[in-house]
Amino acid sequence: MRANCWYGKKDVRVETVPDPKILNRRDAIVKITSTAICGSDLHLYNGFMPTMEEGDILGHEFMGEVVEVGPDVRDRKVGDRVVVSFPISCGNCFFCEQEMYSLCENSNPNAWMAEKMFGHSPCGIYGYSHLLGGFAGGQAEYARVPFADVGTLKVPAELPDEQVLFLSDIFPTGFMGAEMCDIEEGDTVAVWGCGPVGQFAMASARLLGAERVIGIDRVPARLELARTGARADATVNFEEEKTYDALMDLTGGRGPDRCIDAVGMEGFSGHGIVYAYDRVKQALMMETDRPIALREAITACRNGGTVSVIGAYGGLIDKFPLGAFMNKSLTMRTGQCHVQRYWDELLERVQNGEIDPSFVITHRLSLEEAADGYDTFNDKEDACIKVVLKP
Amino acid sequence: MKKSIIINSTPEELYRFWRDFENLPRFMQHLQSVEETGEGRSHWVTKGPADSRVEWDAELTEDRENELIAWRSLEGSDVYNTGSVSFEPAAGGRGTVVRVEMDYSPPGGVIGKGIAKLFGEDPERQVYDDLRCLKQVIETGEVVLSDGTVWDNGVLTQRPGRPVSDEELEQSRGAGAD
């Protein structure tokens, strides 16, 4: 089959590789009909994730048709049309039983690696380095899906791929970001990052009853989509004004009640001593992540508010405003999305017409054009917001 | 060394599973087979090509149903190894804590070459990985495999994260392939 493989920094290649096989009794093999490039894939593309091997297949947002099932798969059969969750979850451990699927204790064969970095390992993830299991990813024609009963969602024929594909990751991720805020009546929610996850975070904040939603970014196309697609009430372009000042103005000096970081480790600010500091330290490998959005969110958040972190981080940061965090009595909630917990409810919302997730798609390419897709997405060229690939 | 892991099961079920020594190769990645030879004794064989395999005999020193199993290698074996595994209900009704204690350096002696075969370079990590595999077998039915991470004669090795070819699958000997 054809698959998009990682070969180093800014080097991805579509090549012919063997077809996936059933390796565990609860596996299924899915023939992929649509797949996407995630913002977090860019961290792999830009060389920020250790434990990648040349030839690793990338991709963790995919869907398609079940073409083979292992002997212990009970709830899925050949021919089922499914979306696949990016977290691989066994369904039987302490965390899966509590619906904390991204914390599955059994699905990372390389748990020892993640344990060294984090203390304990999260779940395995498709196409996301050996630290998280070394699983082949879904930017390919076929994929092996472990624990198929737990990790797939059957989707109805009347919804086209583009409307359900994002149930695999970015829609539930944005939704969980908003849910973690514990939005109360009258709340103003500010979202750093108007990429696809930020768009879904804003749209979800709306669905969960936020009074006002504010999007923060620097790319005009993304700010525009925040207003027209995610229906944000206001946007802040941080290249034109200081985010903190704009938010003070919008909230009469109190600050947003809830702040969502949908930016993560490759934060950009373009100016300022702290950004230069972060870039230098990252280049010297003395700091692994650039937590620019997180620092701003903690600073701007109103006293007693909530900071919800769904941007992906991997390592260690400097200059964390712990004094602000503590003295302002903030709550911070975070995590890789427990996709399987949310996707039934979110599928229903799509079916009811409450939201059409395809609004974030700007580029549709064939799988063969994956390298171009990564390049365009990474540079945010051509008003790129989300790239979908068709094998 | 001491390693422990919490498993979603009862002490009874875990004791029964471990006490049937033929189950041990299902989660102890370096073991090819364990055969009970009578009178509390057993014969152990590691995985690997014939010339690098290690075999030894062991005997039970203690066997408390649903609580504790302890063993030691017989004198004169290539491998010096004493150990025990206990099964304790976890706090809050959250399953069972399986606790392994193991000693592999003979008193006053040099750690035999058999131990390197048994445990590889990092014995503590190997034992803990084995316990992780036990947890996977009990909670999910099998050792969980990925394309990029394979068990190669008891050693967890990395290869590119892509499906194996049919030929490679024939040759590989992952625990889940039983």
Task: Give a description of the structure.
The complex is a heterodimer of chains A (391) and B (178). With 391 residues, chain A is an alpha/beta fold. Chain A folds into two domains: 2-169 and 337-390, Quinone Oxidoreductase, Chain A, domain 1 (Alpha-Beta Complex), CATH 3.90.180.10; 171-334, NAD(P)-binding Rossmann-like Domain (Rossmann fold, 3-Layer(aba) Sandwich), CATH 3.40.50. In chain A, 29% of the residues lie in helices and 21% in strands. The termini of chain A are close together. The mean pLDDT of chain A is 95. Chain B is 22% helix and 34% strand. Chain B has four helices and nine strands; from the N terminus they run E-H-E-E-E-E-E-E-H-H-E-E-H. Chain B has helices at 11-19, 113-119, 123-140, 166-171, and strands spanning 2-7, 31-38, 41-46, 55-64, 68-73, 82-89, 96-103, 149-152, 155-158. In chain B, strand 5 (68-73) and strand 6 form a beta hairpin.
CATH superfamily of the largest domain in chain A: Medium-chain alcohol dehydrogenases, catalytic domain
How does the overall form of chain A come out from the CA principal axes? globular
Domain count of chain B: 1
CATH superfamily of chain B: START domain
Helical content band of chain A: 25-40%
- Main CATH class of chain B: Alpha Beta
Largest sheet of chain A: 7 strands, mixed
Low-confidence stretches of chain A: none
Biggest interface, CB < 8 A: A-B, 42 and 33 residues
Strand content of chain B: 25-35%
How many structural domains are formed by the residues of chain A? Answer: 2
The low-pLDDT segments of chain B are 173-178
In the CATH hierarchy, the third-tier topology of the largest domain in chain A is known as Quinone Oxidoreductase, Chain A, domain 1
Mean pLDDT of chain B: 87
Mean pLDDT across all amino acids of chain A = 95
**Gap between N and C termini of chain B:** 29 Å
